[in-house]
Amino acid sequence: MNAPERPAHRHRDELAARRREVSAGHADWDGARFDDPDRLDLTRRAGHVAFGRGIHHCLGALPARLEGQVALGKLVTRFPDLRLDAAPDELTRRFSLLMRGLETLPVRLG
């Protein structure tokens, strides 16, 4: 005689069947919402999710954004002729569930 199925297992199986994966790496990369989602557009107003939302908002978000602004500002001020040193189709993307970006970004300083 088999033991009766426990309701917790049935519930777990139903949830697994309906499960959807969510990846922050795919946020703001929606072809239905953006004309050119693969293009880096620093002016795009898209609703950034990397630092979370609401009560889950990262406490380090403000200093991290400020650090990025200062670092990039100093970089382009110090090297005004900064240019990409590879053809865009030669760049290799890093594939990860947590991070989206390039393996390397070769640049020429001037």
Automatic annotation (TrEMBL):
Where does the sequence pass through the membrane?
none
State the protein's name: Cytochrome P450
Species source reads Amycolatopsis tucumanensis
Matching entries from PROSITE patterns are given as:
CYTOCHROME_P450
Protein family (similarity comment): Belongs to the cytochrome P450 family.
